């Protein structure tokens, strides 16, 4: 179920603590949105995905911790996709085809009800560890760049597409 409350009497420093505590209390996910009230005061809107049996304890926590006067319960349907964690190996080679770095990381692979591949996303902590290891040996790569490469290659390998793609950068003349 989805719980919602708006809070206009806390500062941003409290938000990470509240998110951590809500997850410890059973919330599956917590989203916090900055907003503004009718009187121009800043507020935070908390959207808390939680099991029905945890709703009361989460509501009590919010009342004690931030003084909320109530929590909205939003009835929702959730379409879940099956996923699996798969390990992929990533290897970086130099211009002479020598391996300069190699490691594995976890990728979350989503499939539909018939098992057909839909998408793949690298796990944040694994991506971060790989980027830091690559940077440590002196190679320049950003987190964004590495994530894009890993996910693009995972999607290419797991996809059942019959198409082959080629890209070429064309430089415009000034």
Short summary of the structure?
This protein is α+β, with helices and mostly antiparallel strands and 174 residues long. Helices cover 29% and strands 32% of the residues. The chain has 2 domains: 73 residues, 2-Layer Sandwich (Alpha-Beta Plaits); 77 residues, Ubiquitin-like (UB roll), CATH 3.10.20.
Give an overview of the whole structure.
There is one protein chain. The chain has 174 residues and is of the alpha+beta class. It folds into 2 domains: 73 residues, Alpha-Beta Plaits, CATH 3.30.70.1380; 77 residues, mk0293 like domain (Ubiquitin-like (UB roll), Roll). It is 29% helix and 32% strand. A hairpin with a 5-residue loop joins β2 and β3. The longest helix is centred in the last third of the chain and has 16 residues. The protein is elongated and about 65 Å long. The model has no long low-confidence stretch (mean pLDDT 91).
């Amino acid at each position: 179920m989805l719980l919602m409350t708006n809070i206009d009497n806390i500062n941003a420093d409290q938000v990470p603590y509240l998110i951590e505590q809500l997850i410890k209390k059973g919330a599956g996910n917590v989203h916090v949105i900055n907003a503004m009230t009718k009187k121009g005061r800043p507020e935070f809107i908390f959207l808390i995905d939680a099991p029905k049996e945890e709703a009361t304890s989460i509501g009590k926590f919010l009342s004690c911790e931030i003084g909320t006067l109530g929590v909205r319960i939003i009835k929702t349907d959730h379409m879940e996709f099956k996923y699996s964690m798969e390990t992929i190996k990533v290897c970086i080679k130099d211009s002479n085809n020598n391996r300069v770095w190699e490691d594995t990381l976890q990728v979350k692979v989503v499939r539909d009800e018939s098992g057909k591949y839909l998408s793949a996303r690298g796990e944040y902590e694994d991506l971060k560890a790989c980027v830091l290891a690559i940077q440590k040996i002196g190679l320049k790569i950003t987190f964004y760049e590495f994530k894009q490469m890993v996910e693009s290659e995972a999607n290419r390998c797991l996809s059942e597409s019959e198409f082959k793609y080629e890209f070429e950068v064309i430089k415009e003349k000034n």
